TrEMBL record:
Ranges that cross the membrane: none
GO MF annotation, one: RNA binding
UniProt superkingdom: Eukaryota
SMART domains named among the record's database cross-references: DUF1785
Name this protein carries in UniProt: PAZ domain-containing protein
Organism: Lactuca sativa
Pfam name, any one: ArgoL1
Record-linked PANTHER family: EUKARYOTIC TRANSLATION INITIATION FACTOR 2C
Residues in PAZ domain copies: 91-142
Amino acid sequence: MQTIAQALRGQVSENSMEALRVLDIILRQHATKQGCLLVRQSFFHNDVKNFVDVGGRVLGCGGFHSSFRTSQGGLSLNINVSATMIIQPWPMVDFLIANQNVKDPYFVDWEKAKCTLKNMRVKTSPTNTEYKITSLSEKPYN
């Protein structure tokens, strides 16, 4: 608490920066307890009214980013508008068919698919483990 009091007085130290990180963690935990979807440092209310269909089974979602910062006046809560895209859960091949507006997997442009999927985060079921797609293999699946 003394470290936070120093930050409020504008005295910045390594300990005060650590205290700000702890406050940021508390903010994130509070948002998740309220049912918000957490994507890195941003929060999105898990409410149907908050999602906009942008086509191809992709949803746009508005939210906010918040963090504590030191300022000349001491400590401030910084809140910014944030947005993210969420793909509705379904098989990846079906997503690519809808995304590229083709009728059959044989017509999927795989170079375009590589760009679309690169750095996408996916959760598997039933374990709910999250992975990041880094590339696609040239080898066929057997």
